[in-house]
Hints:
4 helices, four-stranded antiparallel beta sheet, alpha+beta, 29% strand, Heat Shock Protein 90, 4 strands, globular
Amino acid sequence: MQNKDSRDLFSLLVSAAGEIGNNSYDHNLGQWPDIPGIFFGYDLNKKQIVLVDRGVGILETLKRVRPNLKNHKEALETAFTEVISGREPEARGNGLKYVKKIISENPINLFFRTGDARLALNGNSSNLNMENVKENIRGCLALISY
Length: 146
């Protein structure tokens, strides 16, 4: 870490990245559509962390317990705002809400993609800026910047 501000955020950055990365395995284990695993990269100079998987994505994961979800954007909003887990009956489902809390209270930004939905969560704000996009991706992509 290059400066005091970055050092102060270190544990929060590791925690948020760990939660997102752990979700890739927890929700895809044994059902990776093509390429198993996750890409993780970081650049301390650019102050960026990236995590990408080619798993089933948030919509397919949450449809296991909420079959009425209509699209990726609705699933993404649900994942970041409700206590819900694609691994019911296990008592889980706080992970992305926890990531949202970290970002809403700190100068950390998150760009997240799944399917044809995009989310931008800016540091020190709890507003979920979401939209549909033309390009549909398999799995999830998260870019954390600070």
